[in-house]
Amino acid sequence: MSNWKKNSSSSDPHPPNLGGLEDYILTHIEPEPEYLYKLWRATNIHMLHGRMASGHLQGRLLKMLVQMIRPKNILEVGTFSGYSALCMAEGLDADGHLYTFEINDEQEDFTRPWIEGSPVADKVSFIIGDAITEAPRLGVTFDMAFIDGDKRTYRETYEMVLSILRPGGFILADNTLWDGHVVDHAYDRDPQTKGIETFNDFLTHDDRVEQVILPLRDGLTLIRKR
Fold first, then answer.
1. For FRET with 37, which of 118, 128, 186, 204 sits at 20 to 30 Å CA-CA?
2. How far apart are CA 55 and CA 74, in angstroms?
Protein backbone atom coordinates (compact mmCIF):
# COMPACT_ATOMS: atom_id res chain seq x y z
CA MET A 1 0.00 0.00 0.00
CA SER A 2 2.57 2.52 -1.04
CA ASN A 3 2.00 3.81 -4.53
CA TRP A 4 -1.68 4.44 -5.20
CA LYS A 5 -2.67 7.26 -2.84
CA LYS A 6 -1.10 10.53 -1.86
CA ASN A 7 -3.19 13.70 -1.53
CA SER A 8 -6.79 12.69 -2.15
CA SER A 9 -9.59 12.42 0.42
CA SER A 10 -10.28 8.83 -0.51
CA SER A 11 -8.46 6.02 -2.26
CA ASP A 12 -8.19 3.97 -5.43
CA PRO A 13 -11.05 1.45 -5.61
CA HIS A 14 -8.64 -1.01 -7.19
CA PRO A 15 -5.46 -1.17 -5.03
CA PRO A 16 -2.89 -3.12 -7.00
CA ASN A 17 -1.59 -5.25 -4.15
CA LEU A 18 -4.81 -7.32 -4.06
CA GLY A 19 -4.15 -8.68 -7.52
CA GLY A 20 -6.42 -11.55 -8.56
CA LEU A 21 -7.99 -11.72 -5.13
CA GLU A 22 -9.85 -8.49 -5.69
CA ASP A 23 -11.17 -9.73 -9.03
CA TYR A 24 -12.39 -12.86 -7.25
CA ILE A 25 -14.15 -10.77 -4.60
CA LEU A 26 -15.85 -8.52 -7.16
CA THR A 27 -17.19 -11.52 -9.08
CA HIS A 28 -18.64 -13.06 -5.91
CA ILE A 29 -20.59 -10.11 -4.52
CA GLU A 30 -23.67 -8.20 -5.64
CA PRO A 31 -23.00 -6.75 -9.10
CA GLU A 32 -22.36 -3.03 -9.41
CA PRO A 33 -25.53 -1.35 -10.75
CA GLU A 34 -25.13 -0.01 -14.28
CA TYR A 35 -25.84 3.57 -13.24
CA LEU A 36 -23.12 3.45 -10.58
CA TYR A 37 -20.66 1.86 -13.00
CA LYS A 38 -21.30 4.71 -15.44
CA LEU A 39 -20.81 7.21 -12.62
CA TRP A 40 -17.55 5.55 -11.55
CA ARG A 41 -16.31 5.63 -15.15
CA ALA A 42 -17.30 9.26 -15.63
CA THR A 43 -15.68 10.19 -12.34
CA ASN A 44 -12.37 8.63 -13.35
CA ILE A 45 -12.47 10.15 -16.83
CA HIS A 46 -13.58 13.67 -16.00
CA MET A 47 -12.38 14.39 -12.46
CA LEU A 48 -8.81 15.00 -11.37
CA HIS A 49 -8.86 12.56 -8.46
CA GLY A 50 -11.32 10.03 -9.83
CA ARG A 51 -9.95 7.25 -7.65
CA MET A 52 -11.58 8.97 -4.68
CA ALA A 53 -14.94 7.44 -5.66
CA SER A 54 -15.85 4.53 -3.38
CA GLY A 55 -16.16 1.94 -6.13
CA HIS A 56 -17.87 -1.43 -6.40
CA LEU A 57 -16.72 -3.25 -3.24
CA GLN A 58 -17.02 -0.43 -0.74
CA GLY A 59 -20.22 0.74 -2.37
CA ARG A 60 -21.90 -2.64 -1.89
CA LEU A 61 -20.70 -2.71 1.72
CA LEU A 62 -22.15 0.74 2.38
CA LYS A 63 -25.49 -0.33 0.96
CA MET A 64 -25.56 -3.47 3.09
CA LEU A 65 -24.60 -1.61 6.27
CA VAL A 66 -27.52 0.76 5.69
CA GLN A 67 -29.82 -2.22 5.21
CA MET A 68 -28.54 -3.71 8.47
CA ILE A 69 -28.72 -0.51 10.54
CA ARG A 70 -31.94 0.74 8.90
CA PRO A 71 -31.35 4.44 9.61
CA LYS A 72 -34.05 6.99 8.99
CA ASN A 73 -31.55 9.81 8.50
CA ILE A 74 -27.97 9.55 7.22
CA LEU A 75 -25.39 12.34 7.18
CA GLU A 76 -22.50 12.21 4.71
CA VAL A 77 -19.54 14.59 4.99
CA GLY A 78 -17.71 14.70 1.64
CA THR A 79 -19.87 13.96 -1.41
CA PHE A 80 -17.22 14.08 -4.16
CA SER A 81 -18.95 12.62 -7.25
CA GLY A 82 -21.87 11.16 -5.31
CA TYR A 83 -21.00 7.46 -5.63
CA SER A 84 -21.07 6.64 -1.91
CA ALA A 85 -24.19 8.75 -1.35
CA LEU A 86 -26.11 6.83 -4.01
CA CYS A 87 -24.94 3.48 -2.60
CA MET A 88 -26.18 4.37 0.88
CA ALA A 89 -29.43 5.78 -0.49
CA GLU A 90 -30.02 2.45 -2.26
CA GLY A 91 -30.17 0.74 1.10
CA LEU A 92 -32.60 3.15 2.76
CA ASP A 93 -36.17 2.23 3.62
CA ALA A 94 -38.92 4.10 1.81
CA ASP A 95 -39.07 6.82 4.48
CA GLY A 96 -35.29 7.21 4.84
CA HIS A 97 -33.25 10.21 3.72
CA LEU A 98 -29.58 11.06 3.20
CA TYR A 99 -28.07 14.55 3.55
CA THR A 100 -24.69 14.85 1.87
CA PHE A 101 -22.38 17.86 2.21
CA GLU A 102 -19.61 18.87 -0.19
CA ILE A 103 -17.45 21.87 0.72
CA ASN A 104 -15.89 22.20 -2.75
CA ASP A 105 -18.41 24.12 -4.85
CA GLU A 106 -16.41 23.43 -8.01
CA GLN A 107 -17.69 19.85 -7.93
CA GLU A 108 -21.36 20.81 -8.02
CA ASP A 109 -21.65 20.97 -11.82
CA PHE A 110 -20.47 17.37 -12.11
CA THR A 111 -22.10 15.83 -9.06
CA ARG A 112 -25.57 17.35 -8.92
CA PRO A 113 -26.78 15.98 -12.29
CA TRP A 114 -25.63 12.48 -11.34
CA ILE A 115 -27.47 12.61 -8.02
CA GLU A 116 -30.62 14.21 -9.42
CA GLY A 117 -30.68 11.79 -12.36
CA SER A 118 -30.29 8.69 -10.21
CA PRO A 119 -33.03 6.18 -9.28
CA VAL A 120 -32.75 7.31 -5.63
CA ALA A 121 -32.75 11.08 -6.21
CA ASP A 122 -35.80 11.59 -3.98
CA LYS A 123 -33.88 10.17 -1.01
CA VAL A 124 -30.84 12.47 -1.30
CA SER A 125 -30.32 16.13 -0.39
CA PHE A 126 -27.06 17.40 -1.91
CA ILE A 127 -25.78 20.47 -0.07
CA ILE A 128 -22.80 22.64 -0.94
CA GLY A 129 -21.25 23.95 2.28
CA ASP A 130 -19.19 23.17 5.36
CA ALA A 131 -20.89 20.32 7.20
CA ILE A 132 -19.19 21.21 10.48
CA THR A 133 -21.19 24.43 10.69
CA GLU A 134 -24.16 23.67 8.44
CA ALA A 135 -25.23 20.13 9.38
CA PRO A 136 -26.30 21.01 12.94
CA ARG A 137 -28.53 23.76 11.49
CA LEU A 138 -30.67 21.14 9.77
CA GLY A 139 -32.23 20.30 13.11
CA VAL A 140 -32.07 16.59 12.29
CA THR A 141 -31.07 13.77 14.63
CA PHE A 142 -29.10 11.25 12.62
CA ASP A 143 -28.96 7.47 12.94
CA MET A 144 -25.86 7.00 10.79
CA ALA A 145 -23.06 9.12 9.34
CA PHE A 146 -20.28 8.62 6.81
CA ILE A 147 -17.21 10.82 7.28
CA ASP A 148 -15.09 11.17 4.14
CA GLY A 149 -14.14 14.84 3.99
CA ASP A 150 -11.01 16.82 4.79
CA LYS A 151 -8.69 14.60 6.80
CA ARG A 152 -7.18 17.65 8.53
CA THR A 153 -10.50 18.26 10.29
CA TYR A 154 -11.57 14.67 11.00
CA ARG A 155 -11.52 15.25 14.76
CA GLU A 156 -13.72 18.37 14.48
CA THR A 157 -16.06 16.64 12.02
CA TYR A 158 -16.35 13.67 14.36
CA GLU A 159 -17.31 15.84 17.33
CA MET A 160 -19.96 17.60 15.25
CA VAL A 161 -21.39 14.31 14.03
CA LEU A 162 -21.41 12.77 17.49
CA SER A 163 -23.38 15.75 18.83
CA ILE A 164 -26.26 15.19 16.37
CA LEU A 165 -26.17 11.37 16.32
CA ARG A 166 -28.68 9.41 18.39
CA PRO A 167 -27.41 7.06 21.11
CA GLY A 168 -26.79 3.69 19.47
CA GLY A 169 -26.18 5.37 16.11
CA PHE A 170 -23.27 4.54 13.83
CA ILE A 171 -20.45 6.54 12.25
CA LEU A 172 -18.34 5.23 9.38
CA ALA A 173 -15.00 7.01 8.97
CA ASP A 174 -13.18 6.42 5.71
CA ASN A 175 -9.43 6.38 4.94
CA THR A 176 -8.35 5.69 8.50
CA LEU A 177 -5.33 3.61 7.43
CA TRP A 178 -4.29 6.33 4.98
CA ASP A 179 -2.37 4.21 2.48
CA GLY A 180 -0.48 2.54 5.32
CA HIS A 181 1.18 5.83 6.33
CA VAL A 182 -0.21 5.48 9.85
CA VAL A 183 2.42 2.78 10.48
CA ASP A 184 5.10 4.06 8.10
CA HIS A 185 7.22 6.16 10.45
CA ALA A 186 9.64 7.06 7.66
CA TYR A 187 6.85 8.87 5.83
CA ASP A 188 6.83 12.67 6.10
CA ARG A 189 3.79 13.65 8.21
CA ASP A 190 1.78 16.06 6.05
CA PRO A 191 -1.31 17.77 7.58
CA GLN A 192 -3.75 15.17 6.26
CA THR A 193 -1.72 12.26 7.62
CA LYS A 194 -1.46 14.03 10.96
CA GLY A 195 -5.21 14.60 10.92
CA ILE A 196 -5.89 10.89 10.45
CA GLU A 197 -3.39 9.91 13.16
CA THR A 198 -4.85 12.44 15.59
CA PHE A 199 -8.34 11.12 14.91
CA ASN A 200 -7.36 7.46 15.28
CA ASP A 201 -5.43 8.08 18.52
CA PHE A 202 -8.27 10.12 20.00
CA LEU A 203 -10.88 7.54 19.09
CA THR A 204 -8.92 4.80 20.84
CA HIS A 205 -9.48 6.55 24.18
CA ASP A 206 -12.99 7.92 23.61
CA ASP A 207 -15.28 6.05 26.01
CA ARG A 208 -18.37 7.56 24.39
CA VAL A 209 -18.08 5.03 21.57
CA GLU A 210 -16.93 1.56 20.58
CA GLN A 211 -15.12 1.03 17.30
CA VAL A 212 -13.41 -1.39 14.95
CA ILE A 213 -11.19 -0.70 11.92
CA LEU A 214 -11.78 -2.74 8.78
CA PRO A 215 -8.73 -3.05 6.47
CA LEU A 216 -10.94 -2.41 3.45
CA ARG A 217 -9.37 -0.28 0.70
CA ASP A 218 -7.82 2.61 2.64
CA GLY A 219 -9.27 1.67 6.03
CA LEU A 220 -12.88 2.02 7.20
CA THR A 221 -13.62 2.55 10.89
CA LEU A 222 -17.04 1.51 12.18
CA ILE A 223 -18.04 3.48 15.28
CA ARG A 224 -21.07 2.97 17.52
CA LYS A 225 -22.19 5.73 19.89
CA ARG A 226 -22.94 4.31 23.34
1. 128
2. 19
3-state secondary structure the chain: CCCCCCCCCCCCCCCHHHCHHHHHHHCCCCCCCHHHHHHHHHHHHHCCCHHHCCHHHHHHHHHHHHHHHCCCEEEEECCCCCHHHHHHHHHCCCCCEEEEEECCHHHHHHHHHHHHCCCCHHHEEEEECCHHHHHHHHCCCEEEEEECCCHHHHHHHHHHHHHCEEEEEEEEEECCCHHHCCCCCCCCCCHHHHHHHHHHHHHHCCCCEEEEEECCCCCEEEEEEC
**How would you label 120-143 residue by residue, b for 16+ Cβ within 10 Å and e otherwise?**
beebbebbbebbbeebeebebebb
Q: How many residues can be counted in the chain?
A: 226
Phi and psi at 202, nearest 5°, equal: -65, -45
Sheet holding 73-77, edge to edge: 124-128, 97-102, 73-77, 142-147, 165-174, 220-225, 209-214
Quick: pLDDT tens for 178-201: 988 898 877 778 899 999 999 999
